[in-house]
């Protein structure tokens, strides 16, 4: 997953762009690969076209991690991985929110600080960060991103708190030491997008490059 730091100001910009981006990709596939999608819909998954069109029809739901945990806890569902505040959500939790509770894509925000990367901007509560995940039906997370911490001192303190070796982080700190601006970014799981658009059941079927023992050159 490629996750560039992008020239968008805050987490709201990030969410707006992520939703528009993934909707554009799905619409492009429907418009330009209609024959292929119709074939897959007829012979492999007869709900594929309906599911793709459903992504385009309504705005994605936006809610905080805490609100998501409350929904999952109140659902009465017995998950394989128990739910409580502070845990990293599993695919079964994400898919419940998307496929059963809201029945449309969800953007989940404000995750606990402890389960996210050191560079994510902290919220004023000190417990959460300005992270966001886009959750899709049958996939779970398809996009992940955040607003980045632009404050040098806060970034340094977080690196030290997590005991990350400074020899590995000096260059990253220099991107703040010598001037920065508020910015955010996200990464799209390309194979996950192809998996969703084609309706395939296993991500191995949509990986663009062969993965066999002994063929990795790097």
Report on this model:
- The protein has eight helices and six strands; from the N terminus they run E-H-H-H-E-H-H-E-E-E-H-H-E-H.
- Mean pLDDT is 91; it is low at 1-8.
- The protein is α+β, with helices and mostly antiparallel strands.
- It has two domains: 6-147 and 186-199, Bira Bifunctional Protein, Domain 2 (BirA Bifunctional Protein, domain 2), CATH 3.30.930; 149-182, no CATH class.
- It has a six-stranded mixed sheet with strand order 1-6-5-4-3-2.
- Helix content is 42%, strand content 17%.
- The chain has helices at residues 11-32, 34-43, 48-57, 65-74, 91-102, 152-161, 170-177, 190-198; strands at 6-8, 61-64, 106-112, 128-136, 140-147, 184-188.
- It is globular.
- The relative contact order is 0.17.
Q: CATH superfamily of the largest domain, please?
A: Bira Bifunctional Protein, Domain 2
Structure annotation, total helices: 8
Q: Structural class given helices, strands, pairing?
A: alpha+beta
**What order do the helices and strands follow?**
EHHHEHHEEEHHEH
How do the strands line up in the largest sheet? 1-6-5-4-3-2
Assigned CATH class of the largest domain: Alpha Beta
* Domain module count: 2
Largest sheet: 6 strands, mixed
Low-confidence stretches: 1-8
Shape designation? globular
CATH topology of the largest domain: BirA Bifunctional Protein, domain 2
Q: How much β-strand is present in the residues?
A: 15-25%
Write the layout of secondary structure elements.
Layout: E1 6-8, H1 11-32, H2 34-43, H3 48-57, E2 61-64, H4 65-74, H5 91-102, E3 106-112, E4 128-136, E5 140-147, H6 152-161, H7 170-177, E6 184-188, H8 190-198
Parallel strand pairs: 2-3
Antiparallel strand pairs: 1-6, 3-4, 4-5, 5-6
């Amino acid at each position: 997953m490629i996750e560039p730091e992008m020239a968008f100001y805050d987490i709201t910009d990030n969410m707006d762009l992520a939703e528009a981006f993934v909707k554009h990709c799905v619409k492009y596939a429907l418009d330009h690969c209609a024959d292929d999608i119709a074939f897959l819909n007829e012979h492999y998954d007869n709900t594929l076209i309906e599911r793709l069109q459903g992504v385009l029809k309504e705005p994605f739901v936006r809610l905080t991690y805490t609100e998501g945990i409350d929904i999952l806890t109140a659902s009465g569902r017995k998950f394989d991985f128990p739910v409580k505040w502070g845990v990293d959500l599993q695919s079964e939790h994400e898919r419940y929110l998307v496929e059963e509770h809201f029945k449309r894509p969800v953007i989940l925000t404000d995750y606990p600080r402890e389960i996210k990367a050191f560079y994510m901007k902290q919220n004023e509560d000190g417990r959460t960060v300005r992270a966001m995940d886009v959750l899709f039906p049958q996939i779970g997370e398809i996009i992940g991103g955040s607003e980045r911490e632009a404050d040098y001192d806060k970034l340094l303190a977080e690196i030290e708190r997590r005991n990350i070796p400074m020899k590995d982080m000096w260059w990253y700190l220099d991107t703040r030491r010598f001037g920065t601006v508020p910015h955010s970014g996200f990464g799209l799981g390309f194979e996950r997008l192809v998996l969703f658009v084609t309706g395939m059941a296993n991500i191995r079927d949509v990986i663009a490059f062969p993965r066999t023992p002994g063929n990795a050159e790097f």
